[in-house]
Request: fold
Amino acid sequence: MIGIFDSGFGGLTVAQEIIGRLPEYDYLYVGDNARAPYGGRSKEVITQFSEEAVQYLWSRGARLIIFACFTASAQALRELQQRHTDKKILGVVRPIVEEAVRAGTRIGVVGTRATIASHAFRDEIHKLAPNAEVIEKATPLLVPFIEEGWHTKPEARMILKKYLTPLKSHNIDTLIHGCTHYPFMHKDFERIMGKNVNVLRTGKIVAESLADYLQRHPEIETQLSKKSAREFCTTDCTERFELFAQQNLTLKIGTVEKIALM
Reply:
C-alpha cells in the first residue's frame, strides 16, 4: 500500500494525479484537517504531527509514504527519514525543483510561512542551478481560504493577486506552487501571472516522479499491494471532506473515515 499524507485537502491534488497515473496500487490517504494549516506552526510541532501521521500509515500497512505536503516535506521529512532508516518516506520538493530548473532560470516560489522560511526550494534549486534567481513569497492566507472551500470567491482571487504582484515585477519565467493546496487555484495563478510564466502543475510532476521511482526501485515496488483499493481518512469532519472532494476533484473518493492521530 502507498500512504499519502497532507495537512488537509491539498494533498488530494497530488493523490488524484498519482492514482490517475498509477491506478493499480492500493492507497491510503490521511488528511490532518483538524490541525490544518501547518504553515504557521513551528518546525518541532510540524515534525511531531508528521511523525504521528507516518506511524498511523505504517500501522495500517503502508510500505511507502508520500508527504503530499510541502510544509511537512520542507520541515520534517529529513528528520523522519533519519529516524526511520528502515522505512521509505518520499517528499515532494525535489521532483518539483528538478522540473523548475529545466523550465527556467528566474523562478518564483509561493508557499506557507514555514515552507518559505525553510528556504527548502531555494536551497535545492541552487544545488542544481547555482546561477538561478529565486524569488520567494509567503502566501499564508491561501490555505485557510482553500480549507474552507472559499477559493472560488472574489476575495480569494483579490488576495492572490496582491500576493503575486511582487513576483510579476521580478519578471519570473517559472512559478512553483510551494503548497499542494494551491493547484485548486491553478487557473487563477495562470490568469494573474500571464502567458509568459510557466506555472508548474505539481501533482502531475510528483506522479511522474513516483512512477519513475518505482520503476528504478523494484525492491520497493514489489512490496506494494495492487488491488486498486483506495481509502481516505481525515482527522476532522468526514462530511465536509467528502463534499470538498466532490466539488473540487474528478477522483471519486467514496466514504471517508474519521481518525485520530496521536
Summary: The first helix runs from residue 11 to 21. The chain is about 50% helix and 15% strand.
